[in-house]
Amino acid sequence: MSKSAKQAIGQQILALFRAAGATEVAPDVLLPAEILLDLYGEDIRARAYVTQDPIRGEVMLRPDFTVPVVQMHMENGAEPARYCYLGEVFRKQDHGDTRPEHPRDNEYLQVGFELFAKDTDADAKVFALFHNILAPLNLQATMGDMDLLMDAVRALPLSQARRSALLHHIWRPNRFAWLLARFSAASPARDFPENAAPWTGLRNPQEMQARIDRLQADAAEPPLPPEWAARLERLFAVQAPAPQALAQLQGIATEIPAIAGAVARLDHNLSLLAARGTDIGAIRFDASHGRRTMEYYDGMTFSFTAPGWHDWPPVASGGRYDALAAVLGQGRGRSIPAVGGIIRPGLIHELGGLG
Amino acid sequence: MIRLGVPSKGRLMEQSFDWFAARGVRLSRAGSDREYSGRVEGAEGVSLVLLSAGEIPRELAAGRIQLGVTGTDLVREKLAGWRSDVVELVPMGFGHADLILAVPACWRDCETIDDLAAIARDFRQAHGFRLRIATKYHRLVRAWLSRHEVADYQLVDSQGATEGTVANQTAEAVADITSSGETLRANHLRILDGPPILRSQATLFACRGAMGPEVRAFLCQLGFEPPV
Questions:
Q1: Given this model, what pLDDT does residue B83 score?
Q2: What is the ipTM of this complex?
Q3: Do residues B77 and B116 share a domain?
């Protein structure tokens, strides 16, 4: 497969991003590993190439562009800002017990666009930009919204501790389901028998006591009434063409009023898209879409997939990541809503190009 | 010629020799016990290669040895996609060891992996970094924690004396191989409840590409039906 042909497609898309007002940036290929490991956790070590620099310590071959672009913006960007980029990312595939016959590329191009702005129309603008660029390929567009799910969890009649545990694990479906089931049943009081073991390690006795106190207080909590787990389940399962999904969500909002704001924003975004001529009936809305993507998306998420290519990753994906931008802006006292996405020119090349 | 790789020292070597002897094949070291070459009596066309147990998976995968004795833990840790490269032939009934996760015994609030997941979250909030688990079994431990959807942790590499890392405050928990659990207890650590990450034992493996008539005949001689 010709790399220069893929580069050419990348350049073609980059030109479209520039025409949409973006400034091109070129982040480093070798990135300090520490910040990426802290943000993404141990899983990234299984996917990214990590190596050692005698002076800089652990470094990583760029596994994605989002973090370096956000860092660059936090250091010297004025707002609102739009950036675009084209370059390689590197991902290793750690297989299970058997190796696939056709391993996926471990080095491929991404061309991306990121928008930093306090603009209520930003989600729709970014989605429309990607939708228009990809229109010739007839891809399946899927949209999700983590805000909906998180607002619903925040509204559960539970203690702060329980709600925050659920929110923390919203991207981990089994742990989330396990917690929800535990909170929905009466919790038997638990014993913490004394033992003779001497204290060892960095975690201190006060930290343990705080957790024991919390678990004991938790045992006194009444179980979550069953209708709440059922409502969440219905909300998380919404999956339909966007207009029908919106109607279903409006119905669910009568039972979970806390999601009304997020539903209204989705309505607003879909209206904007329709007004720009996008066929919103062809967009699939999947409420749980964002739970299956990177943990850093905390608002709208989207992906464009090639129908019939089931073992392919999405041709394009993206979303809103305000919390990640806030974490990276912390030291500088900066926080700015952020939304963006990437396209994989290599996959477009395999589909025959943009025409 | 079949090249048979066997661990080059200690109990594992002796028990491997015993195992083959019980099946009519006498393996021994040539010359002094410091020399890493071996002798085979009772089987035609088989030569003995004495190797570090940790290198046997790699040598099997590369096809430089056709048969090898090593732990299931080492094969699964060291060979990504191990089933594509090697065939697990016969568990040999010795070298039993579990890969386990252990925490300080003084943690009265930590019995299960779910407790550890909750503690890791608190720890990260309190200390500003992820709870550290010391291990040399990075792939196995990471895959297992990922399957159990544990977040908020990091692995730190420890190639030896892993049980000491908690007292030295370079890790909060350890994931290591244990057979009796004595070293863990001596270091005031306790194994989490529930099944271990992996139950391992010494096993006879074959290089997948080498499963020809020669290897099959030798397996029959040892008293085993070779896999199809």
A1: 93
A2: 0.88
A3: no
